[in-house]
Design a protein that fits this description.
Elements: H1 3-36, H2 52-59, H3 61-92, H4 97-107, H5 114-124, H6 131-138, H7 152-180, H8 184-192, H9 197-208, H10 210-225, H11 229-234, H12 246-256, H13 260-290
Helix pairs in contact: 1-13, 3-4, 3-7, 3-10, 3-12, 5-7, 10-13, 12-13
């Protein structure tokens, strides 16, 4: 078989994947860019207006407020997910029946849909019938039921608690797999040298699971930057639009205010921010590999 024919056969093998990417990635992306340069609306109209939407977004305080709140949410929840997930992984990385049972229990919420989970926690935090207020009162931590979603700060922490419960098991499983991939001989050599548990964690486990930590952090950051369902269901953007995330604000403009062109612009801006986060993660991974 000559090289030319071999090349064509190879192309035919990858052609379905290329067609899929062209149809469902590049074509929609091109349409998104095209729409962002117009005043497209669900009520009609599709006139070209250049970069006017981008200029409007730059001067729109609501955009910066939504991005600022999204960043705040991301900075709050990411360390909690990473720390709690890694701690659970250290506790359950063994092969005992108790470790396997604990991993299973911690991972079970991951299989629940985010919308279902958010609705469940919305009622758990309800000031009249919610179990959270009842528990806090029984423990003597509060005297009166808290109205969680009447305050932006309380509403944010309610969402954080619900999301941590929902997804912490995902990071835990990734960390467990990474920890279990470390050769047992390394730990045994450290024990012979007299290294304690925390010394082994600090000097062996953490460095050898660095790539997994970066990967999980990236997934968490991207997921947090794209947060929508939990805020739509639990806070509805309130009170006074203080819990609008970036994606929620895109949805609001596109499908509530019918500004598809402006919504497309906001989507592209958020996509660039997510790409920047991914690029930083890849840069950190490469530097670590070259070190």
């Amino acid at each position: 078989m000559n090289a030319s024919r071999s090349g064509w056969i190879g192309f035919l093998y990858v052609a379905p994947a290329l067609l899929f990417v062209l149809a469902f990635v590049f074509y929609p992306l091109g349409q998104l860019v095209s729409t962002s340069l117009t005043n497209a609306s669900l009520l009609g109209g599709n006139e070209y207006q250049g970069f006017r939407n981008y200029i409007k977004a730059y001067h729109d305080p609501a955009v910066w407020n939504a991005l600022g709140f999204t960043l705040k949410y991301t900075l709050f929840i990411t360390p909690i997910l990473m720390g709690l997930g890694y701690g659970l992984a250290l506790l359950t990385s063994g092969s005992s029946a108790l470790a396997r049972l604990t991993r299973t229990i911690a991972f079970l919420p991951v299989v629940i849909g985010l919308g279902t989970s958010s609705l469940m926690w919305f009622w758990l935090f309800d000031e009249q019938v919610g179990l959270v207020n009842k528990l806090l009162q029984d423990l003597g931590l509060i005297a009166q039921p808290l109205v969680w979603f009447a305050s932006a700060e309380l509403g944010l922490w309610a969402v954080i608690i619900s999301v941590v419960w929902k997804v912490v098991g995902f990071g835990m499983i990734l960390f467990v797999a990474s920890i279990q991939s470390i050769s047992p001989e390394i730990g045994e050599a450290a024990l012979i040298d007299g290294a304690g548990y925390w010394a082994r964690v600090r000097k062996i486990i953490l460095p050898l699971t660095y790539r997994t930590i970066l990967l999980t952090t990236l997934v968490s950051v991207i997921g947090s930057m794209l947060a929508f369902d939990q805020f739509y269901i639990m806070t509805a953007g309130g009170p006074k639009s203080q819990t609008f995330t970036a994606v929620y604000w895109i949805y609001q403009n596109s499908f509530i205010y019918f500004k598809l062109g402006y919504g497309a612009t906001l989507s592209l801006l958020l996509m660039m921010i997510v790409f920047a986060a991914a690029a930083i993660q890849l840069l950190l991974t490469r530097r670590r590999a070259d070190a």
